[in-house]
Amino acid sequence: PARAARRPAWRANGAWKPVSGQGVIDFDVAELATKVAPLAQRAAEAARSAQRSLTALEWFQMGLDLEPHDLDGARDAYRRALELDPSHVDAHVNLGRLLHEAGHAEAAATHYRQALALRPNDSTAAFNLGVALEDQGRAAEAVVAYERAVRADAANLDAHFNLARLMERAGRKAAAIRHLKAYRRLVRA
C-alpha cells in the first residue's frame, strides 16, 4: 500500500513505518502480547461456544486482543461484532484493514465506505479507503478519498504525501506542491 511518513504509524497489532511498510517492534509490548495470546485465543474459543452471548463491544475487544497472534480469529471477532452492531465504525475499519492486508482490497474498501457512511469525518477510514482504491488501480477515486481524509484531519501527513504523489502523476503540479509542502511542514512539527 502507498503510505509515507518518517515516524512509525500505530495500529492494533503494532507500529509500522509507512514508507517501507516494515514493522517496528516494541519488545516490551511484543513480549506481553506473546504471553497474552494463548489467553485471548482460549477466551475467543470459549466465547464462540458459550451460552452467554457477547456484546458487539466485547467481540470488538476480542478482535483487538487476537490481532497480534490470530488474524483469522480477529477477523471472525470483528465480523461477529458487526453482526450484532452493523454501525460499529471501528469494527468496520479494523476488519477492512485486516482484509486489505490479506489481499482483499475490494472487500476492505466496502468496510471503509460503511465506516464513512456512519462517521463521515473519520480520517483513518478515508485514508485507508484511498490506499485500498490505489491498490485496485483506481487513482482518481483514491484522490477523492485522500482529500476527504485531509478535510477530516489537516494533519494527516500520509494523506498529504499520497495526494502529492498522485497529483504529480496526474500532472497537477500546483496541487502536488501544495500537498508536499503540507507534508513537509507536518513532518517537521
How would you describe what is shown here?
By secondary structure, the chain is mostly helical. The protein is built from nine helices and three strands. The chain has a three-stranded antiparallel β-sheet with strand order 1-2-3, with no helix packed on it. Strand 1 and strand 2 (14-16) form a beta hairpin. Helix 2 (56-66) runs antiparallel to helix 3 (71-84) and helix 5 (105-118) packs antiparallel against helix 6. The longest helix has 23 residues, at 27-49.
Please specify the SSE layout and strand pairing:
Blueprint: E1 9-11, E2 14-16, E3 23-24, H1 27-49, H2 56-66, H3 71-84, H4 89-101, H5 105-118, H6 123-135, H7 139-152, H8 157-169, H9 173-188
Antiparallel strand pairs: 1-2, 2-3
